[in-house]
Amino acid sequence: MRKFIATVLLAGTAVGLFGTTEAAEKPNIVLVYADDLGFGDPGCYGATGVATPNIDKLAKEGLRFTDAHCSAATCTPSRFALLTGSYAFRQEGTGIARGDAAAIIKPGTVTLPSLLQNAGYRTGVVGKWHLGLGNGKAGDIDWNAEIKPGPNQIGFDYHFLIPATGDRVPCVYVEQGHIVDLDPADPVKTSYGAPIGDGPTGKDDPELLKMKWSHGHNQTIVNGISRIGFMTGGEKARWIDEDMADVISHKARKFIDESKDKPFFLYFSLHDIHVPRVPHSRFVGRSAMGPRGDAIVQLDWCLGQVLESLDANGMANNSLVIFTSDNGPVLDDGYYDDANEKLGSHSPAGPYRGGKYSLFEGGTRVPMLVRWPGRVGAGKQSDALFGQVDLAASIAKLVGVDVPAGAAPDSRDELDTLLGEDMIGRPHLVHEAGGLALRAGHLKFIPAGKVRENLGPWKTASIVKPGALFDLSSDPAEQRNVAADFPERMEEMAALLGKVRQSPDRP
Ligand code: NG6
Ligand code: CA
To answer: Residue 341, Cβ neighbours under 10 Å: how many?
Structure first.
């Protein structure tokens, strides 16, 4: 028996030495994920109303993508695809999650962080989660017991979470399965149905609000802001929105500081610039655009915090930093915060049509910057088509682990694209926003149906049969539908979208 074990161990070592490490490199990996940050929002993508020195620094020291996409035009499906390498439309229940949703990524699923754990990484997520927690169905969760399954059951060693979103209850942080600062005598309860408790709400007590709601967001008031959902208890544990950037940046820095023995993966998932936009007082008035612009300044500061921490630990040269966003921009997303009124000449989606919730390019084409000193050229631009769904397989390739058969079904190894060696990227990519659209090279296909555009208040474009075809090389703003001129192309695009919809996309 002992001999058998020794042989197995030896074989394991041999694989470790000669199999997986051959081409593997194991830099630290920091993925900074902005919320609702549009293509045109950072300075290095043309922002006019706000300065973003840290984002711009990444562009100067790394690779700036111009055609990189999140998977969907809202948070939950984009994050699902980012972590699992599977398009979200393959799984039911991956739309915008309620704050009391059960864990959407089931324990045991192969994920970007679990692949990195296999490669010997320490993995952590700090910030917005919005992928559900706990078992059962929505509403079953007991916030006062150990909260699981959650990130630790799908590949993260450490988590410090905003459980859903800043505008959804419960308004508390969760660290390693427990609400931070929870007083057992004051348990947290939530409801996404009937009202609970007798606490003030945005609907009945508007005089208590420091920021008024415009649509939705009129239920329990926490910290002078009414939210989606009702919440009672946890008075001591409730967050203060103005401190959120400091709290999560501190936790992110601490995770980096404590990751000296092993390579690490940090998924730093920012709250900014999602609603409610209530940055810390030191950022108020720092942009020309009111709270939405000031939240961009705060977001840039958060990124700066982790960059500074890498420098302070002497880790910058050995770290791959990826900065990107979970969906396109939105102006009025449920609170009156002057986002429209103070926009000026700033173009949140850059030259693209639509934004958050939209199948037009503005919905998913997001800023993306990659810095890895010595490995990725400084100050370079890539116009390659890149999808965040590919991060799992690409990073697995980088660190030398295999993606098991059937796992991460839509994730392609696009490591060369990620590192700026391949300037073409994916042949085609699906976008999700309620319905699906397809990019293939510079062509864009949107099936007949309704597509949201504008950035709130909403307008809806109706796309008539047989759908829309745009040639982005001459018409990046999707203004001229050429479907009628290219019926064969339309058929090909529709057939390809149908094929990808039916079966996994990994070659
Ligand atoms: C919508 C909310 C919006 C935002 C979004 C999720 C209303 C009227 N709108 O339902 O404010 O919370 O969900 O945003 O309630 S995401 O970036 O997390 O996908
Ligand atoms: Ca979002």
So the answer is: 12
